[in-house]
Amino acid sequence: MDSFIIKGPSKISGCAEISGSKNSALPIIFSTILTEQKCEIKNVPQLSDIKSSFDILSYIGKNCFYSLNTFISDEKHRLKTEAPYDMVRKMRASVLVSGPLLARFGHVKFAMPGGCAIGVRPIDIHLDGFKKMGANIEFEQGYVILKAKKLKPTSLSLKFPSVGATENLMMAAAITNGCTIINNAAKEPEIVDLARVLNLMGAKIEGAGTDRVKINGCKKLKGFNYKVMSDRIEAGTFLILCAACGGELEVKNINPEIISILIEKLKESGAELVIEKDCIKIKSPKKIKPVSISTGPYPEFPTDLQAQWMAYMCLAKGSSNIIESIFENRFMHAAELMRMGADIKIKHNKAIINGVDKLIGAPVMASDLRAGAALLIGAAAAFGESIVKRIYHIDRGYEKIEEKMRAIGVNIKRIKE
Predict the structure, then answer these.
(1) Are 260 and 165 part of one and the same domain?
(2) CA 377 to CA 405: how far, in whole Å?
(3) What is the extent of the structural domain holding 255?
(4) Whole-angstrom Cα distance, residue 56 to residue 29?
């Protein structure tokens, strides 16, 4: 099992090139199930989660190729409609096989998905939507079985704007003849990216990026060629890294509009930012001001940057609060940051962070993907040596993270244990 050794404190300088978005690439990869024609997806990051999606698609019968950030798939034979536990347990997003397989073949059997230890994250919103579209739902020894001779277009309302459910239902509706409307839909930029792909395939989708998405589906969808958007969470992580460690950084290949809330909070904390068309330049604060945040669905502060923000606020001159409104167990990184000397108190879904003069290197352990990113930030800013263990979590969502961090001034190396 790999670990990172980081010797701090770091001084950041240079440029970070942002990779393609994991959270956009995964649903787009699963959308290839909707057609037997060739699909080519560019700017796909090299991550363990992408490898997991490759394995699932290969298992069900898709002919897949993945190299140099390009994912290609086509189809030679009829697909299987079952996704086994040993594959699905590795990644939460694997539930996205269910919508395309159900809509295209009328049947799917998939294991309850796994992923990070940041809460229950039930799939009931997905299932409620499929039921509204006419699917029959059964549960059998840890598996969900969905059946429908033919899904029907409908109007439905999500009880929470779930990104995964919005994506799953959009894909199912895209190959369901007629008009389906999703109310209280997720508005994340990754939803817009998926809608562009489904439109290229022949569906007609309006309202992606708003809380009301209208999908005019068709019986047969075609292949596509598409470049995935850049990863806003990776961009945010590098901006926070620079602000916490000190220095200046140019973050390239990112649309600043999709992380406007983070830019606003960084400015409040004392950082200086220059915003260009597809680039953000940041100069770290001379003195970090405490800034409180509350996570929420887009365009509010992303839960996927909450842990990184906590690591940053550990070094602020004063007290700040973080309210986590999305996931119930997403403060597991707090205890690890405290091993570095952070002063954090947790009360239910609220974290109270009292800034300290400095963090001290320590052995720590990543509990999930974004917690791992927070520990990298803390370790890079800390005095002395830190060992970050269980970095397979980090490899799920950050492409070549140690190479990118090393290039901008962080003393980091990967070790095999």
Answers:
(1) no
(2) 10
(3) 2-19+230-416
(4) 11
Integer Cα distance of 203 and 218 in angstroms: 6
**161-188 pLDDT, tens digit each:** 999 999 999 999 999 999 999 999 999 9
Residues 60-101 pLDDT 10s: 999 999 999 999 999 989 999 998 888 887 777 789 999 999
Q: Are residues 198 and 275 in the same domain?
A: no
Residues 156 and 271 in one domain: no
Statement to judge: residues 406 and 314 lie in one domain: yes
Sign, Cα dihedral of 274, 236, 277, 13: positive
Tell me if 157 sits within 8 A of 183, measured CB to CB.
yes
Whole-angstrom Cα distance, residue 66 to residue 78?
A: 21
Residue 64 falls in the annotated catalytic set: no
* CA-derived radius of gyration, the chain: 21
106-138: b (≥16 Cβ within 10 Å) or e: ebbbbbebebbebeebebebbbbbbebbebeee
Task: Return the bridge partners of 180, or none.
Answer: 215
Note whether 218 and 284 are same-domain residues: no
Secondary element (H or E) of residue 238 = helix 232-245
**Distance (Å, rounded) from C-alpha 175 to C-alpha 159?**
24
The answer to whether 98 and 126 are in contact (CB under 8 A) is: yes
383 and 411, same domain (yes or no): yes
Boundary of a domain, candidates 173, 198, 227? 227
**Tell me: the pLDDT tens digits for 154-166?**
999 999 999 999 9
In order, the DSSP letters of 127-144 are HHHHHHTT-EEEEETTEE
Token digits for 347? Answer: 């009360």
Among candidates 59, 58, 48, 50, which has minimal Cα distance to 29? Answer: 50
Write down which residue in 174, 197, 227 finishes a domain.
Answer: 227
Is the same domain home to 256 and 400? yes
What local confidence, expressed as pLDDT, does residue 16 receive?
98
Counting the structural domains of the chain, the total is 2
Contact between 327 and 119 (Cβ < 8 Å) = yes
- Kindly report the pTM of this predicted structure: 0.95
Annotated active-site residue in 116, 242, 245, 314: 116
Write out the two tokens for 144: 């969900």
Q: Within 13 Å of residue 133, how many CA atoms lie on the same side as its CB?
A: 37
CATH number at residue 196: 3.65.10.10
In the numeric block, the tokens 């050794």 are attached to: 5
